[in-house]
């Protein structure tokens, strides 16, 4: 047994490493247990997000987006590029370099903040003990006043389509192909399916997405989801709804995918199959029974709004608890918990949670959709502005999409914002701030926006809620 810690965090993804850093900043003696072994067979911090999630996927999306622009967009801007070629191994190596720089950066931050990295697999025992099983099988127990569980999530596997080598893969496998597959099937037209499907489509693969539901992106504002589907289809993503996969079979270097759609049993032969049907909380074997924390049948740890479990001194944050599986959601929960352990009265405004799909065009939203407000019986008004009327979007040659902002009809308070178009992920920031500050549409309408910027679209959308947008013909209200 070593010295007692104030806080032991289990898991060093964006929820856990941020919680550990914030706890250490507040003067708490902190350790973080992490077992990740990376592609280079080395222990690594950063979790799913940095190693096989947010960052590597965005690195490949960036490379392939530029490649796509060079192929299809540059000529319109007066740039002739001659014959283009792509070096996929170099793209993958660039992605890996970004990952190792960022995960190495977390290691440096741990050192700078005097956080002990306990390498191995952590388990919560009774009486606030945490055992760590190292790679050599040895066990060490540590005592602590507080435990923060941040063990994240893993891809859901479909028993009917078992992963196989680099042919039937989950999202991690689809980040590492060094040759461009001829035809790819993706099970699930969710966020991962669309982002990774876009990466390989832009590189030239034929991509078919089979989605079991009959609605495309049900969590997104209906008008935006419709526009997104149209844009993705135009890019060549073949999105098939009401298509439920029933099995797959690998034959040599091909895979046959069987599925059912409205016309009955179907099958297709492809070079690669990506299983992207969601992620599940990782809690199996994590907590000794006698600890008694509440975990549901899906492995999700029960917590209240402050991420406290039913056992005092044990907290859980990130993908392992309720709510959207998003890196920033986990990180902010980590900050809140560390601050509350240190005696501060921190809380989190879950109503102002940004969401982004990093396709082209990007889809981004915060707050309520029109459909949710209708269902809740809230009187609202929406203002919209198309990027086609934005001078900056025209100058960029990227005019697809729109900004929609929704207000409470009676109080003028901003209730939600929904964007599709250029830099939507960045533009979303000001509406998140609006929700966080409880701003009104008038506050946005009154704010001076630089010209020419894409952010003027948000300004004009706010003005249009009152029929006073300048650069479009306003609908009569
Ligand atoms: P994780 O990042 O999963 O980290 C958990 C850590 O705990 C892991 O390192 C794991 O090794 C460790 N661990 C687990 N059990 C133990 C144990 N017993 N002992 C020790 N260590 C343990 N989200 C976004 O917000 N934006 C995006 O753009 C985005 N893109 C994504 C792209 C892909 C391809 C994927 C797969 C996910 C993406 N996500 C994105 C989701 C995001 O990665 C997760 O929401 C986020 O990583 C959750 O953070 P976390 O810290 O809760 O868990
Ligand atoms: P998801 O829930 O977004 O999509 C999975 C899709 O698979 C769903 O639409 C579901 O209906 C479909 N599906 C399930 N079983 C099926 C079957 N048998 N046949 C056909 N379709 C089936 O999950 P995901 O795309 O795997 O992503 C996992 C998590 O990671 C998400 O919660 C997401 O929030 C997070 N993530 C976020 C980002 C981002 O923020 N940009 C990017 C990637 C992942």
Question: What's the helix and strand layout?
Answer:
Elements: E1 5-10, H1 14-25, E2 30-34, H2 47-52, H3 54-72, H4 88-112, E3 116-119, E4 121-125, E5 129-133, E6 139-149, E7 153-155, E8 168-169, E9 183-187, H5 191-202, E10 206-210, H6 222-234, E11 237-240, E12 244-251, E13 254-261, E14 264-270, E15 272-275, E16 279-281, E17 314-316, H7 327-341, E18 355-357, E19 362-367, H8 370-376, E20 380-386, H9 391-396, E21 402-408, E22 414-421, H10 424-436, H11 441-446, H12 456-464
Helix pairs in contact: 1-7, 3-4, 3-5
Flavin-adenine dinucleotide binds next to helix 1, strand 2, helix 2, helix 3 and strand 4.
What does this protein look like?
The protein has three domains: 220 residues, FAD/NAD(P)-binding domain; 110 residues, 3-Layer(bba) Sandwich (FAD/NAD(P)-binding domain); 114 residues, Enolase-like, domain 1 (2-Layer Sandwich). A hairpin with a 5-residue loop joins strand 21 and strand 22. The protein has 477 residues and is of the alpha/beta class. The termini are far apart. Helix content is 30%, strand content 25%. The protein contains twelve helices and 22 strands. Flavin-adenine dinucleotide binds next to helix 1, strand 2, helix 2, helix 3 and strand 4.
């Amino acid at each position: 047994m070593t010295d007692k810690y104030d806080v032991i965090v289990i898991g060093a993804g964006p929820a856990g490493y941020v919680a550990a850093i914030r706890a250490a900043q507040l003067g708490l003696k902190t350790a973080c247990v992490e077992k990740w072994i990376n592609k280079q067979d080395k222990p690594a911090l950063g979790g799913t997000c940095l190693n096989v999630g947010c960052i590597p996927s965005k690195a490949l999306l960036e490379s392939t987006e530029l490649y796509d622009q060079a192929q299809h967009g540059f000529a319109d801007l007066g740039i002739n590029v001659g014959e283009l070629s792509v070096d996929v191994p170099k793209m993958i190596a660039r992605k890996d370099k970004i990952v190792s720089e960022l995960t190495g950066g977390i290691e440096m931050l741990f050192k700078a903040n005097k956080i002990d990295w306990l390498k191995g697999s952590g388990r919560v025992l009774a009486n606030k003990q945490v055992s760590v099983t190292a790679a050599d099988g040895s066990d060490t127990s540590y005592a602590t006043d507080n435990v923060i569980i941040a063990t994240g999530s893993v891809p859901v596997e479909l028993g009917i389509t078992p992963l196989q080598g680099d042919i039937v893969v989950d999202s991690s496998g689809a980040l590492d192909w060094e040759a461009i597959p001829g035809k790819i099937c993706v099970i699930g037209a969710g966020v991962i399916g669309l982002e990774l499907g876009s990466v390989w489509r832009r590189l030239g693969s034929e991509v078919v997405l089979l989605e079991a539901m009959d609605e495309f992106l049900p969590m997104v504002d209906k008008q935006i989801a419709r526009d997104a589907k149209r844009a993705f289809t135009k890019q060549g993503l073949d999105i098939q709804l009401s298509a439920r996969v029933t099995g797959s079979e690998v034959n040599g270097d091909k895979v046959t995918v069987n599925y059912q759609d409205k016309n009955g049993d179907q099958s297709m032969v492809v070079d690669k199959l990506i299983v992207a049907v969601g992620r599940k909380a990782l809690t199996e074997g994590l907590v000794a029974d006698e600890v008694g924390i509440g975990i549901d049948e899906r492995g999700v740890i029960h917590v209240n709004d402050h991420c406290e479990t039913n056992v005092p001194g044990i907290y859980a944050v990130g993908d392992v608890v309720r709510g959207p599986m998003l890196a920033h959601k986990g990180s902010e929960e980590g900050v809140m918990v560390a601050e509350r352990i240190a005696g501060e009265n921190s809380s989190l405004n879950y109503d102002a949670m940004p969401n982004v799909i990093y396709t082209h065009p990007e889809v981004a939203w915060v707050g309520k959709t029109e459909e949710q407000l209708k269902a809740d019986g809230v009187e609202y008004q929406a203002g919209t502005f198309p990027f086609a009327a934005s001078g900056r979007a025209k100058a960029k040659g990227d005019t697809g999409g729109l900004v929609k902002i929704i207000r409470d009809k009676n109080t003028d308070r901003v209730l939600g914002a929904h964007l599709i178009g250029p830099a939507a992920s960045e533009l979303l920031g000001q509406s998140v701030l609006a929700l966080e500050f409880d701003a009104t549409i008038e506050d946005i309408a009154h704010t001076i926006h630089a010209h020419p910027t894409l952010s003027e679209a948000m300004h004009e959308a706010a003005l249009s809620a009152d029929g006073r947008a300048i650069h479009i013909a306003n609908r009569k209200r």
